[in-house]
Automatic annotation (TrEMBL):
InterPro entries: Phenazine_PhzF-like. This is PhzF family phenazine biosynthesis protein. GO terms for molecular function: catalytic activity. Pfam families: PhzC-PhzF. The lineage of its organism: Bacteria, Bacillati, Actinomycetota, Actinomycetes, Kitasatosporales.
Length: 218
């Protein structure tokens, strides 16, 4: 591993209305200093965040995304956070070109549901049932959700990656929110984890927008 790569930004993505919660993300702005995939994977595992992003071209928005145990062609909250940090109109991922925009306090991306990794979307009868769930054994990637207010599009959700890589529950998950929005065909206001907020909206031709607040930790 290239020992020179020590500088990275830490963001919280999909924060709640008062700035709390959100899923923690590491962004290595100068990814070219660590070009090898094996080194990137090892560094992501060393940091231990749900995802770590390596920026290969900050002007064009070319990025490479890793969990502690795998490389991802696309992921939601890393794209939302990195687009906000770089202030670019689009991101180039292995899955495709992700549109990006800022709207007041919210950072938005536009992506396609087929880019998202497979998730089990399981509906429960109430938000209380979702709140009461225990972390399942490693296996399927489970997105547990229930309506808080169906008429208003308000959802309660929790995410259990089930990868066995030390991340038992994701605080906020953009790709799963994208898939749920595509499945339901409507805009959603999702409260996930301990209090993170994810906003979504279907777009023409199968695209979906996913947005939230981003804060720079350091």
């Amino acid at each position: 591993m290239n020992a020179r790569v020590t500088d990275y930004d830490v963001l919280r993505v999909f924060c709640g209305p008062r700035g709390g919660h959100g899923n923690t993300l590491a962004v290595v702005r100068d990814g070219t200093r660590m070009p090898e995939r094996d080194d990137r994977q090892a560094f992501a595992a060393q940091l231990g965040f749900s995802e770590t992003v390596f920026v290969d071209d900050p002007e064009r928005g070319v990025i490479d995304i890793y969990t502690p145990g795998a490389r991802l062609p696309f992921a939601g909250y890393p794209c939302v956070g990195t687009a906000w940090l770089l202030d670019v109109p689009e991101l180039v991922t292995p899955a495709g070109v992700v549109g990006a925009r800022l709207d007041g306090e919210f950072s938005w991306i536009e992506a396609r549901p087929e880019w998202a990794p497979a998730r089990t979307l399981r509906q429960y009868g109430s938000a209380a049932e979702v709140d009461a769930l225990k972390v399942p054994s490693p296996g399927e990637w489970l997105y547990a959700w229930a309506w808080q207010d169906e008429a208003a599009g308000r959802v309660r959700a929790r995410a259990f990656p089930g990868r066995g890589d030390g991340i038992e529950e994701d605080e906020a998950t953009g790709a799963a929110a994208l898939l749920l929005t595509h499945q339901l065909g409507r805009a959603l206001n999702i409260t996930q984890g301990a209090g993170s907020q994810i906003l979504t909206a279907p777009q023409p031709e199968g695209w979906v927008e996913v947005g939230g607040r981003v804060f720079l930790e350091h």
